[in-house]
Design brief:
By secondary structure, the protein is mostly beta strands. It is built from two helices and 33 strands. A hairpin with a 2-residue loop joins strand 32 and strand 33 (about 310).
C-alpha cells in the first residue's frame, strides 16, 4: 500500500508550489495584465477590481491575454504614473465600437473609453493591437513612445502623443478622428495611416516642429499629412486623401515625398522668401491632384509636377 502523505505536509507543499509558480511569473520583474485579473480582484497592488486596469507605479508591465471592455465608455488601461513600459505582447485591447471609414460620417457606438490612457510622462506602449474603442485608441502624454502597434475602428483618434514623443512602425486604419496626432517636437516615422475620418498624420493645433518621415497616408477624409510651423516631411507618400496630400505651415521642409490623386492640392505650404518664412520643397512628386500640384513654398531642388520636371532657376 503506498504511503499516504499527511494532510498538513501536503498542504504546505501545494502552497510552496503555488508560491514558486508565482515567483517564476514575476522573475523578470514584469507585472502581468489579463482579462481574469482585470475583471476580478485587480492585477497588482494599486489596481482596484474591474476596469480600468490602473498602473500607478513606474516599471514594466505586460499583457498575457486579450483585454475586452464591456462598453464604449470603459477605458481598458489607465496610467496616471510616469516611467512606465507596457508591452501588449501581441495581444488585443478591444472595445465595442466601429467605424467603416470615409465616406461614413459617423462612428458606431461612440463613447469615452480609451484603450490606453496615460497622463504621466515617459510612457512606452508597444507590440500589439487596439481596436473598437469608444474614443481614442492610445492617448499618451509628453516624452511618450508608441512602437509596432495597430489601432483601428476607434471613434476618436487612433494614436495621440504629447510633446517630444515618438510613433514608430505603427498602423492606424479607419479611426473616426485622425490616425496619428502629435504634440510639438514629436516624430512620426515608418507609419501607415489609411481611411481615417480626419487627417492621416497631423499636429495638435498650434504644435510646431513635427517630423514625419517614411510614412504612408492614403484615403483619409482630410489631409494626408499636416504639420505646424517648422515641420519636416521627408520620404513620405500621400494618395487619395480628400483634401491636401501634404500641408505645412511656414518655415518647414517637404523633401523626397509624393502626393498623388488627392482631392485638393498635392503639396500646400506657407511662407515665401520675401516674408522670411519660406518652406523648402525639393525632390518631390505631385501629380493628378484636384487642385494645384504645389501651392506656396520655395523650390530648393528639382521636382516633378504633373509629370513636368520643375527646377529652381
Amino acid at each position: 500500500m503506498p504511503a499516504v502523505m499527511p494532510r498538513r505536509i501536503g498542504g504546505a507543499l501545494l502552497l510552496l508550489t503555488g508560491l514558486l509558480a508565482s515567483s517564476a511569473r514575476a522573475v523578470d520583474g514584469v507585472l502581468e495584465i489579463n482579462q481574469v485579473c482585470a475583471t476580478g480582484p485587480g492585477c497588482f497592488a494599486g489596481d482596484a477590481p474591474g476596469f480600468p486596469v490602473t498602473i500607478s507605479g513606474s516599471g514594466s508591465y505586460r499583457l498575457t491575454g486579450n483585454l475586452i471592455v464591456p462598453n464604449a465608455s470603459t477605458t481598458a488601461i489607465s496610467i496616471p504614473g510616469s516611467g512606465v513600459t507596457l508591452d501588449l505582447n501581441g495581444f488585443l485591447v478591444r472595445g465595442t465600437s466601429s467605424y467603416a471609414g470615409p465616406p461614413a460620417t459617423s462612428c458606431t457606438n461612440a463613447g469615452s473609453g480609451i484603450g490606453v490612457a496615460a497622463t504621466g510622462s515617459d510612457v512606452a506602449v508597444s507590440n500589439g493591437h487596439v481596436s473598437g474603442m469608444g474614443s481614442t485608441g492610445l492617448s499618451l502624454g509628453t516624452n511618450s513612445r508608441v512602437e509596432r502597434v495597430t489601432v483601428e475602428d476607434c471613434c476618436g483618434n487612433g494614436i495621440a502623443i504629447g510633446i517630444g514623443s515618438l510613433a514608430h512602425e505603427s498602423v492606424v486604419n479607419r479611426n473616426f478622428g485622425s490616425g496619428i496626432i502629435a504634440g510639438a517636437a514629436s516624430r512620426v516615422s515608418s507609419c501607415i495611416a489609411t481611411r481615417n475620418g480626419a487627417s492621416g498624420v497631423t499636429s495638435f493645433a498650434g504644435a510646431t516642429r513635427l517630423s514625419v518621415e517614411n510614412c504612408i497616408a492614403t484615403d483619409n477624409a482630410v489631409d494626408g499629412i499636416f504639420g505646424g510651423q517648422r515641420s519636416l516631411v521627408r520620404g513620405s507618400v500621400t494618395r487619395g486623401n480628400l483634401d491636401d496630400g501634404i500641408a505645412l505651415l511656414d518655415s518647414g521642409q517637404v523633401l523626397e515625398s509624393t502626393a498623388i490623386s488627392n482631392g485638393d492640392r498635392g503639396i500646400t505650404v506657407l511662407g515665401t522668401i520675401v516674408d522670411g518664412n519660406s518652406t523648402a520643397v525639393g525632390l518631390t512628386v505631385a501629380n493628378g491632384n484636384g487642385g494645384l500640384e504645389l501651392s506656396g513654398g520655395v523650390l530648393v531642388g528639382c521636382n516633378m509636377f504633373d509629370l513636368i520636371p520643375t527646377c529652381p532657376p
